[in-house]
Write a structure and sequence with these properties.
alpha/beta; globular; five-stranded parallel beta sheet
Length: 196
């Protein structure tokens, strides 16, 4: 529970908001939206989604029961927000296929093979002509942090740290690779946009 509270208090406004704002900005508007939010953590940015898509029903899934409980508490404070948050520790999510006008995931922390599973799940859940939005860091993001970690590894001759840094830097996809992953997951119209 403490980690979920720290995440909501510090990580969401200082870091995750950058990704959530982009998702909200790019939402295709529509009536009676049914939104699946995969790896929803504490339910951010579901309030913004509900404001953008009036009358939306939001279904969130996350493996953390503490994060889901916090998402439920937050949702209860907004009377117009209709949500159903569920603990789900693996994919496929306990949600019906082809039933959602929108599927979103904001900065999922996944290995490349797990990202492929997430994209396939997005395709499974999405109704025809629906919209999937996945906001993730791309290759080249956080270069300054990786450089600092490389310096540390060199200074302390920490080969294992250097290897972990290199693996982490390469785990983020390029625009072309992400486009190919989306097409492989079954999406027909793919638009990958890079924002600084």
């Amino acid at each position: 529970p403490a980690e979920a509270a720290i995440f909501e208090t510090f990580v969401v406004p200082r870091y995750l908001a950058t990704f959530g704002d982009l998702v909200i900005e790019m939402l295709a508007e529509g009536d009676d939206a049914q939104v699946a939010h995969l790896l929803c953590r504490t339910g951010y940015p579901d309030r913004g989604v509900a404001l953008r898509l009036a009358g939306a029903h939001i279904y969130g899934c996350d493996p953390s029961s503490s994060a889901i409980e916090l998402a439920r508490v937050k949702a209860a404070t907004m009377p117009d927000l209709v949500t159903d948050y569920r603990v789900a520790d693996q994919l496929p999510a306990p949600l019906p296929g082809g039933a959602f006008s929108h599927v979103l995931s904001v900065h999922p922390i996944l290995r490349p093979q797990e990202r492929a599973q997430l994209l396939q799940e997005c395709a499974r859940l999405l109704a025809p002509n629906g919209q999937a939005l996945v906001a993730i860091p791309m290759r080249g993001s956080f270069q300054e942090i990786f450089d600092l970690l490389r310096e540390f590894a060199l200074k302390h001759e920490a080969v294992d740290v250097m290897q972990a840094v290199e693996q982490a830097a390469l785990a983020h996809p390029t625009m072309e690779a992400l486009g190919a992953e989306l097409e492989e997951a079954g999406f027909h119209y793919v638009d990958v946009e890079l924002r600084s």
